Amino acid sequence: MNVTIIGIGLIGGSIAKDIRKKGLANKIIGVESSKEIGSRALDLGLVDEISELKIAVSESELLILATPVDISLQLIPDLMGMITQQTIVDVGSTKWDLYNSIETHPKRDQFVLAHPMAGTEFSGPEAAVEHLFEDKVCILCDTQENNLMHLQKAKHLFRSLGMRILLMKSEEHDLHAAYVSHISHISSFALALTVLEKEKDEKKIFDLASGGFDSTVRLAKSSPEMWAPIFRQNKANVLRVLDTYIEKLNAFKEEISKGNKIELVELIREANRIGKVLK
Amino acid sequence: MNVTIIGIGLIGGSIAKDIRKKGLANKIIGVESSKEIGSRALDLGLVDEISELKIAVSESELLILATPVDISLQLIPDLMGMITQQTIVDVGSTKWDLYNSIETHPKRDQFVLAHPMAGTEFSGPEAAVEHLFEDKVCILCDTQENNLMHLQKAKHLFRSLGMRILLMKSEEHDLHAAYVSHISHISSFALALTVLEKEKDEKKIFDLASGGFDSTVRLAKSSPEMWAPIFRQNKANVLRVLDTYIEKLNAFKEEISKGNKIELVELIREANRIGKVLK
Fold it and tell me: Does B1 touch chain A (CB under 8 A)?
């Protein structure tokens, strides 16, 4: 089976590495809008060749759409027009807008909406790593609208990467993703901006970076080209979660400002419950 | 040399482990307000004996004060009254209030204000780990007011734990700590509260926990008994940073809500600069 990966960055490149390692494809074809990124992906051995979208599609059985979510949305109409029997699997972080764009398409059943929940704060083909997806969760959305053969191909791919598959509706996915992934990124970006604005003496930031700051701010290194479109596509959910988050910060502000010892301990103790939920 | 550790939790216990491993003390005496915690620390071999404060002080050369910062503030007057030639090193996360409480004391020069910047989200003697401080920074505050012999003893301790020493004023420490440690914890607690409130179906939180949520929310497991007093003692700085943080979140809210693509990318790109500062 030939596989085409459209967008060979952190996610596309990491999928390519595992596909090669597990021997899932005879040939991996890369499609890249940037010639320079394409040639870096080729040099890194992530793909066997770089090709035009149309040619790549015609030569492949499985197409993996791993571009930023705004680009994916733009590409989908063309892509749907090009396929014959191929399976398309998109691996972006938002699903509802994509779902709406394909819902009534005659080849809807060949398009599998997937979100392999894994990543790092790095981007580009150099960020691709093996085993990125191992023991992580892959959400597949609205799969009742998929043809079984195409769905099985997608499931086989993600299971081969070591992922556990979870099914939900696109709408539900976007709501959950806002809570457990999108807000974490905004929280981290805002934290970075706060520190950068106030700490003029940057040497001191580095020196003091061991107080828990590293882990909360790690995600602030994440790519704007990837994340801005995610926040825009998931606008309603993200804004709702952001409101709640600011509300909770204001609760802390109030208790600290009033010097309320018991209430402050209570807030933190309530937050501690997250440990039980996550373990 | 005998060393007394007052408060044998995550920090006190981890210091005890390294002191023992490096052979820095003949005997490690533990002082604990809770009998039960004291006996657990003894069972874990963190200390050689548990003793009353007064006896422990009289038998030791070096006293390490590792209680929550509110307790430290309460203990200091008694402790200062008990010492003769001993060195006291406090290892709490706030320094300004402690500094003010000892500033004019005749034995001020025996009290070294330290903040070894290391920790985990866990607490209690069972949370103690070896090498917690290795390659981390230890801030020593207002050391020009210390007697050289006492200061050298503290420096030797932290260098033996593998730490790099950085000097600053207590007031400056508290400001920086608010930016790089205290706000990270509030950010994380508030994130946990947000998700806990809205995600009624807790199974789903677990399933989706791989989208970056884990690292930003890790600190939300931290102890209320340790952190509430820190926020209260560093109130003015923490409130100021919290205001800036909420301002930055509102900036994200505005750009997302208006659908401003370029401005949103710009905000994230600005936040990305933190990567250069931290590396």
Answer: no
